[in-house]
Design goal:
This protein has 150 residues and is of the alpha+beta class. It is 21% helix and 32% strand. It binds zinc ion. The site of zinc ion has 7 residues, from loops.
């Protein structure tokens, strides 16, 4: 199974929130199952909507990173999803200029996600750039949970 590393709180916004578009500078090589891996480093500049969708209070001035980091899965696979579509941002504009989702960004490829299933027990795993193959041990931990749930 292939994985996509997404920085927090974006990864949690996919796993536990309603983020169903992942913005990338490159087109998805194909559709199908992908696991969402939360990177080791958080995106501290993420907007409030991402923190809220992740189930957290927005990170901002006066907040200590260690408190927030303690509430985030970092360096772990947090969800399993399906890439159900992928299009260039210029293909999703409606006449009034809005994009396909409040999560969609201009100038990016929009990877449309469906069937998102958060893992009850996030699986620790090293991340990588691009779409990468999950090592056997982590994959087994993920698949075991999917079987238990179904
Ligand atoms: Zn779009």
């Amino acid at each position: 199974v292939k994985a996509l590393t997404v920085r927090q709180p974006w990864a949690a916004a996919i796993a536990y929130g309603d983020k169903r578009v992942e913005n990338r500078t490159w087109k998805a090589p194909g559709l199908g199952r992908v696991v969402i891996h939360a990177g080791k480093a958080a995106d501290w500049d993420a907007p409030g909507m991402a923190w809220t969708a992740a189930g957290l209070a927005p990170y901002g001035p006066g907040c200590t990173r260690s408190m927030w980091a303690g509430s985030l899965a970092l360096g772990e696979i947090v969800a399993v999803a399906e890439v159900t579509g992928c299009h260039d941002w210029t293909r999703c504009r409606s006449p009034d200029g809005t994009l396909c989702s409040p999560w969609a960004a201009r100038g990016q490829w929009h990877w449309v996600l469906g069937s998102v299933r958060p893992l009850a027990v996030p699986a620790p795993c090293k991340g990588a750039l691009g779409l990468w193959a999950v090592p056997p041990e982590a994959e087994a931990a993920v698949l075991a949970q999917l079987i238990e749930e179904s």
